[in-house]
Amino acid sequence: MDYQALLEQVAKDIAPLVGSGAPAEYIPALASVDPRQFGMAVADLDGNVFGVGDWRTPFSTQSITKVFALALALAEGGDSLWERVGREPSGNPFNSLVQLEYENGIPRNPFINAGALVVTDRLQTLTGDASSELLRFLREESQNPDVAFDPEVAASEQEHGDRNAALAHFMAAYGNIDNPVPTLLEHYFWQCSIEMSCADLARAGRFLARHGLRADGSRLLTRSEAKQVNAVMLTCGTYDAAGEFAYRVGLPGKSGVGGGIVAVVPGACTLAAWSPGLDAQGNSVAAVAALDRFTTLTGLSVF
Question: Is 247 a catalytic residue?
Protein backbone atom coordinates (compact mmCIF):
# COMPACT_ATOMS: atom_id res chain seq x y z
CA MET A 1 0.00 0.00 0.00
CA ASP A 2 1.36 3.41 -1.00
CA TYR A 3 0.92 5.17 2.33
CA GLN A 4 2.63 8.36 1.21
CA ALA A 5 0.29 8.86 -1.73
CA LEU A 6 -2.69 8.06 0.49
CA LEU A 7 -1.67 10.62 3.09
CA GLU A 8 -1.21 13.30 0.45
CA GLN A 9 -4.69 12.56 -0.88
CA VAL A 10 -6.16 12.68 2.63
CA ALA A 11 -4.49 16.03 3.35
CA LYS A 12 -5.89 17.45 0.11
CA ASP A 13 -9.39 16.15 0.78
CA ILE A 14 -9.71 17.46 4.33
CA ALA A 15 -7.86 20.77 3.80
CA PRO A 16 -11.08 22.87 4.05
CA LEU A 17 -11.56 21.59 7.62
CA VAL A 18 -8.11 22.56 8.91
CA GLY A 19 -8.60 25.46 11.30
CA SER A 20 -12.14 24.43 12.20
CA GLY A 21 -13.03 24.17 15.87
CA ALA A 22 -11.04 25.86 18.62
CA PRO A 23 -8.00 24.91 20.71
CA ALA A 24 -8.61 23.82 24.30
CA GLU A 25 -9.15 26.94 26.38
CA TYR A 26 -9.18 25.55 29.93
CA ILE A 27 -5.42 24.93 29.73
CA PRO A 28 -3.88 28.32 28.88
CA ALA A 29 -0.71 26.75 27.45
CA LEU A 30 -2.86 25.05 24.78
CA ALA A 31 -5.16 27.96 24.03
CA SER A 32 -2.48 29.89 22.15
CA VAL A 33 -1.60 27.10 19.69
CA ASP A 34 -2.19 28.01 16.02
CA PRO A 35 -5.29 25.99 14.95
CA ARG A 36 -4.30 26.11 11.26
CA GLN A 37 -1.75 23.34 11.67
CA PHE A 38 -2.31 19.78 10.48
CA GLY A 39 -0.14 16.69 10.37
CA MET A 40 -0.64 12.98 9.86
CA ALA A 41 1.65 9.95 9.93
CA VAL A 42 1.48 6.21 9.35
CA ALA A 43 3.92 3.67 10.78
CA ASP A 44 3.89 0.17 9.31
CA LEU A 45 4.79 -2.99 11.19
CA ASP A 46 8.45 -2.74 10.17
CA GLY A 47 8.83 0.78 11.55
CA ASN A 48 8.72 2.69 8.28
CA VAL A 49 6.99 6.03 8.83
CA PHE A 50 5.24 8.17 6.23
CA GLY A 51 3.87 11.62 6.82
CA VAL A 52 2.26 14.75 5.49
CA GLY A 53 1.88 18.34 6.66
CA ASP A 54 3.12 19.18 10.17
CA TRP A 55 3.79 15.52 10.96
CA ARG A 56 7.14 16.21 12.62
CA THR A 57 5.91 19.11 14.78
CA PRO A 58 5.76 18.21 18.50
CA PHE A 59 2.47 18.93 20.27
CA SER A 60 0.97 18.29 23.70
CA THR A 61 -0.26 14.70 23.71
CA GLN A 62 -2.46 15.14 26.79
CA SER A 63 -4.89 12.20 27.14
CA ILE A 64 -3.22 10.14 24.41
CA THR A 65 -0.62 9.18 27.02
CA LYS A 66 -3.35 7.31 28.91
CA VAL A 67 -3.07 4.49 26.36
CA PHE A 68 0.62 4.00 27.04
CA ALA A 69 0.23 4.28 30.81
CA LEU A 70 -2.50 1.62 30.64
CA ALA A 71 -0.26 -0.69 28.61
CA LEU A 72 2.61 -0.29 31.06
CA ALA A 73 0.36 -0.88 34.08
CA LEU A 74 -0.98 -4.08 32.50
CA ALA A 75 2.52 -5.20 31.54
CA GLU A 76 3.88 -4.60 35.03
CA GLY A 77 0.89 -5.65 37.12
CA GLY A 78 -1.43 -7.78 35.05
CA ASP A 79 -5.23 -8.02 34.99
CA SER A 80 -5.70 -7.07 38.65
CA LEU A 81 -5.90 -3.48 37.41
CA TRP A 82 -9.42 -4.19 36.15
CA GLU A 83 -10.61 -4.65 39.73
CA ARG A 84 -10.08 -0.92 40.22
CA VAL A 85 -11.28 0.52 36.91
CA GLY A 86 -14.01 -0.57 34.51
CA ARG A 87 -14.12 -1.05 30.76
CA GLU A 88 -17.43 0.59 29.85
CA PRO A 89 -18.14 3.88 28.07
CA SER A 90 -19.04 6.58 30.56
CA GLY A 91 -21.58 8.64 28.63
CA ASN A 92 -20.49 11.62 30.76
CA PRO A 93 -17.81 14.31 30.42
CA PHE A 94 -14.25 13.03 30.89
CA ASN A 95 -13.83 14.90 34.19
CA SER A 96 -17.24 14.09 35.71
CA LEU A 97 -17.58 13.49 39.45
CA VAL A 98 -21.20 12.40 39.38
CA GLN A 99 -20.70 8.87 38.09
CA LEU A 100 -17.98 8.12 40.63
CA GLU A 101 -20.38 8.68 43.51
CA TYR A 102 -22.98 6.35 42.01
CA GLU A 103 -20.38 3.65 41.47
CA ASN A 104 -18.48 3.82 44.77
CA GLY A 105 -15.26 5.34 43.48
CA ILE A 106 -14.67 2.86 40.62
CA PRO A 107 -14.20 4.78 37.33
CA ARG A 108 -16.04 3.52 34.28
CA ASN A 109 -12.92 3.17 32.09
CA PRO A 110 -9.19 4.01 32.08
CA PHE A 111 -9.51 6.90 29.62
CA ILE A 112 -11.74 9.28 31.55
CA ASN A 113 -9.70 11.34 33.99
CA ALA A 114 -10.72 9.38 37.06
CA GLY A 115 -9.78 6.10 35.41
CA ALA A 116 -6.48 7.49 34.18
CA LEU A 117 -5.66 8.63 37.70
CA VAL A 118 -6.22 5.08 38.96
CA VAL A 119 -3.94 3.73 36.21
CA THR A 120 -1.22 6.26 37.04
CA ASP A 121 -1.59 5.43 40.72
CA ARG A 122 -1.11 1.75 39.94
CA LEU A 123 1.89 2.48 37.72
CA GLN A 124 3.40 4.62 40.48
CA THR A 125 3.07 1.74 42.93
CA LEU A 126 4.60 -0.71 40.44
CA THR A 127 7.51 1.45 39.28
CA GLY A 128 8.11 4.12 41.93
CA ASP A 129 8.23 6.84 39.25
CA ALA A 130 5.26 6.62 36.91
CA SER A 131 5.88 9.69 34.76
CA SER A 132 9.59 9.00 34.21
CA GLU A 133 8.89 5.36 33.39
CA LEU A 134 6.30 6.41 30.84
CA LEU A 135 8.65 8.95 29.27
CA ARG A 136 11.42 6.35 29.02
CA PHE A 137 9.05 3.92 27.31
CA LEU A 138 7.84 6.53 24.81
CA ARG A 139 11.39 7.54 23.93
CA GLU A 140 12.31 3.93 23.28
CA GLU A 141 9.24 3.00 21.24
CA SER A 142 9.24 6.23 19.21
CA GLN A 143 13.01 5.91 18.69
CA ASN A 144 13.26 9.58 19.56
CA PRO A 145 15.38 10.39 22.64
CA ASP A 146 14.22 14.02 22.44
CA VAL A 147 10.61 13.25 23.46
CA ALA A 148 10.17 15.30 26.63
CA PHE A 149 7.87 16.85 29.18
CA ASP A 150 6.70 20.43 28.61
CA PRO A 151 7.17 22.24 31.95
CA GLU A 152 4.85 25.08 30.90
CA VAL A 153 2.00 22.69 30.18
CA ALA A 154 2.64 20.71 33.37
CA ALA A 155 2.54 23.94 35.41
CA SER A 156 -0.66 24.98 33.64
CA GLU A 157 -2.22 21.59 34.39
CA GLN A 158 -1.25 21.95 38.04
CA GLU A 159 -2.63 25.49 38.30
CA HIS A 160 -5.97 24.47 36.79
CA GLY A 161 -6.11 20.96 38.24
CA ASP A 162 -8.72 21.36 40.98
CA ARG A 163 -11.18 18.99 39.30
CA ASN A 164 -8.54 16.27 38.95
CA ALA A 165 -7.57 16.78 42.59
CA ALA A 166 -11.22 16.40 43.58
CA LEU A 167 -11.48 13.17 41.57
CA ALA A 168 -8.33 11.77 43.19
CA HIS A 169 -9.40 12.66 46.74
CA PHE A 170 -12.87 11.26 46.14
CA MET A 171 -11.46 7.92 44.98
CA ALA A 172 -8.97 7.90 47.84
CA ALA A 173 -11.92 8.19 50.22
CA TYR A 174 -13.25 4.95 48.70
CA GLY A 175 -9.85 3.25 49.06
CA ASN A 176 -9.15 3.22 45.32
CA ILE A 177 -5.94 5.31 45.46
CA ASP A 178 -2.80 3.88 47.08
CA ASN A 179 -0.32 6.74 46.84
CA PRO A 180 -0.52 10.20 48.42
CA VAL A 181 -2.80 12.32 46.26
CA PRO A 182 -0.23 15.14 45.76
CA THR A 183 2.30 12.59 44.48
CA LEU A 184 -0.25 11.04 42.15
CA LEU A 185 -1.32 14.40 40.76
CA GLU A 186 2.27 15.47 40.14
CA HIS A 187 2.96 12.37 38.03
CA TYR A 188 -0.37 12.66 36.24
CA PHE A 189 0.23 16.28 35.26
CA TRP A 190 3.74 15.53 34.02
CA GLN A 191 2.36 12.57 32.07
CA CYS A 192 -0.20 14.76 30.31
CA SER A 193 2.46 17.34 29.40
CA ILE A 194 4.54 15.01 27.21
CA GLU A 195 5.16 16.45 23.75
CA MET A 196 5.37 14.21 20.69
CA SER A 197 4.91 14.55 16.95
CA CYS A 198 2.64 12.46 14.72
CA ALA A 199 5.75 10.53 13.63
CA ASP A 200 6.64 9.82 17.27
CA LEU A 201 3.13 8.69 18.17
CA ALA A 202 2.72 6.47 15.13
CA ARG A 203 5.97 4.69 15.96
CA ALA A 204 5.25 4.48 19.69
CA GLY A 205 1.86 2.87 19.15
CA ARG A 206 3.09 0.10 16.89
CA PHE A 207 3.09 -2.47 19.70
CA LEU A 208 -0.71 -2.37 19.57
CA ALA A 209 -0.68 -3.13 15.84
CA ARG A 210 1.94 -5.84 16.48
CA HIS A 211 -0.27 -7.64 19.02
CA GLY A 212 1.88 -6.59 21.98
CA LEU A 213 5.39 -6.78 20.50
CA ARG A 214 7.70 -3.83 21.13
CA ALA A 215 9.99 -2.20 18.56
CA ASP A 216 12.91 -4.40 19.65
CA GLY A 217 10.86 -7.56 19.21
CA SER A 218 10.35 -8.20 22.92
CA ARG A 219 6.84 -8.74 24.21
CA LEU A 220 5.23 -5.96 26.26
CA LEU A 221 1.69 -7.36 26.30
CA THR A 222 0.18 -10.73 25.59
CA ARG A 223 -2.01 -10.88 22.49
CA SER A 224 -5.01 -10.94 24.81
CA GLU A 225 -3.86 -7.80 26.67
CA ALA A 226 -3.17 -5.96 23.41
CA LYS A 227 -6.67 -6.88 22.28
CA GLN A 228 -8.05 -5.54 25.57
CA VAL A 229 -6.32 -2.18 25.13
CA ASN A 230 -7.50 -1.88 21.53
CA ALA A 231 -11.05 -2.82 22.54
CA VAL A 232 -11.21 -0.16 25.25
CA MET A 233 -9.77 2.40 22.82
CA LEU A 234 -12.52 1.58 20.34
CA THR A 235 -15.34 1.92 22.87
CA CYS A 236 -13.96 4.63 25.18
CA GLY A 237 -11.04 6.40 23.50
CA THR A 238 -12.63 9.58 22.15
CA TYR A 239 -14.49 10.94 25.18
CA ASP A 240 -18.27 10.82 24.85
CA ALA A 241 -18.03 10.71 21.05
CA ALA A 242 -16.59 7.18 20.99
CA GLY A 243 -19.65 5.74 19.28
CA GLU A 244 -19.50 8.34 16.52
CA PHE A 245 -15.75 7.77 16.07
CA ALA A 246 -16.23 4.00 15.81
CA TYR A 247 -19.04 4.57 13.30
CA ARG A 248 -17.03 6.96 11.13
CA VAL A 249 -13.48 5.63 11.45
CA GLY A 250 -13.91 2.02 12.56
CA LEU A 251 -10.58 1.80 14.39
CA PRO A 252 -9.40 1.79 18.01
CA GLY A 253 -8.37 5.38 18.72
CA LYS A 254 -7.39 7.70 21.55
CA SER A 255 -7.65 11.45 21.36
CA GLY A 256 -6.27 14.27 23.45
CA VAL A 257 -7.31 17.89 23.90
CA GLY A 258 -3.99 18.93 22.37
CA GLY A 259 -5.64 18.00 19.06
CA GLY A 260 -3.95 14.66 18.47
CA ILE A 261 -5.44 11.23 17.82
CA VAL A 262 -3.62 7.90 17.60
CA ALA A 263 -5.41 4.99 15.90
CA VAL A 264 -4.52 1.34 15.38
CA VAL A 265 -5.07 -1.09 12.53
CA PRO A 266 -4.13 -4.41 14.19
CA GLY A 267 -1.78 -6.42 12.01
CA ALA A 268 -1.17 -3.53 9.61
CA CYS A 269 -0.14 -0.10 10.90
CA THR A 270 -0.58 2.71 13.40
CA LEU A 271 -1.88 6.18 12.51
CA ALA A 272 -1.49 9.55 14.18
CA ALA A 273 -3.20 12.77 13.16
CA TRP A 274 -3.07 16.23 14.70
CA SER A 275 -4.79 19.56 14.33
CA PRO A 276 -5.48 21.79 17.36
CA GLY A 277 -9.05 22.83 16.57
CA LEU A 278 -11.47 20.78 18.69
CA ASP A 279 -15.16 19.99 18.39
CA ALA A 280 -17.64 20.21 21.27
CA GLN A 281 -16.60 16.77 22.56
CA GLY A 282 -12.90 17.68 22.70
CA ASN A 283 -11.76 15.81 19.58
CA SER A 284 -9.85 17.40 16.72
CA VAL A 285 -12.18 18.25 13.84
CA ALA A 286 -9.55 17.86 11.13
CA ALA A 287 -7.86 14.81 12.68
CA VAL A 288 -11.13 12.87 12.91
CA ALA A 289 -11.95 13.81 9.32
CA ALA A 290 -8.47 12.72 8.18
CA LEU A 291 -8.74 9.32 9.84
CA ASP A 292 -12.25 8.90 8.44
CA ARG A 293 -10.99 9.70 4.95
CA PHE A 294 -8.00 7.35 5.31
CA THR A 295 -10.15 4.36 6.24
CA THR A 296 -12.59 5.19 3.45
CA LEU A 297 -9.79 5.24 0.86
CA THR A 298 -8.04 2.13 2.12
CA GLY A 299 -10.88 -0.01 3.46
CA LEU A 300 -8.77 -0.68 6.57
CA SER A 301 -10.97 -1.33 9.59
CA VAL A 302 -11.46 -3.70 12.50
CA PHE A 303 -14.92 -4.55 11.15
Answer: no
